[in-house]
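Allow me, if you will, to draw on your knowledge of protein folds for a short while. I have a record of one protein: its chain in single-letter code and its fold written as discrete structure tokens. I remain grateful for any guidance, and I place the record below:
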Amino acid sequence: MRFVGIDPSTKTGFVALDEHGQIMREKEITGIGTVDPKRMRTMIIDVMDHIRKDDIIAIEGFGFASQQAIQNGGIGWGIRMALDARKINYIEVAPNALKKYVGVTGWTGETGNKKRLSGQEKKKAVKDAVKEHFNYSHRSDNVIDAYVLAQIALSHFVVQETDSIQLMNYQAEVIDTILKKVN
């Protein structure tokens, strides 16, 4: 059994973990060429080439403030439709829930003097938090996000099957929210 995280984007992050949380596969998927729809289509095919029937999959939900919302929406829906065609279930994880799972709020500073993180600041905060939580790093922000999604898929599965997993409060809140949506 594998736990897969997919971060659909113009460069899609893919991570598969085994039942112990060890990396089996990590990849940034870009598709062939630079012209759409061929690039997007080949990216989706490449993602699906890495999927197995019994994978437990978490996919990042749609970000509405993205500069590339139409492209990312096409890629995200393409992957979801390909999973649906194979009758493979997946769980949706909101972008803010992914960040929350590693303790990133999107803000920095002390109460009364907070500043919203944006763009590269937010990506760096997530990268640093993933390093701190899981001792994991990668050159690609997309693969880092996919890694967190794979960890969420693993935690989600363990909670459903055994209910015996130690999580930080904010991680448990993310899993609880996902479980409420699924059930």
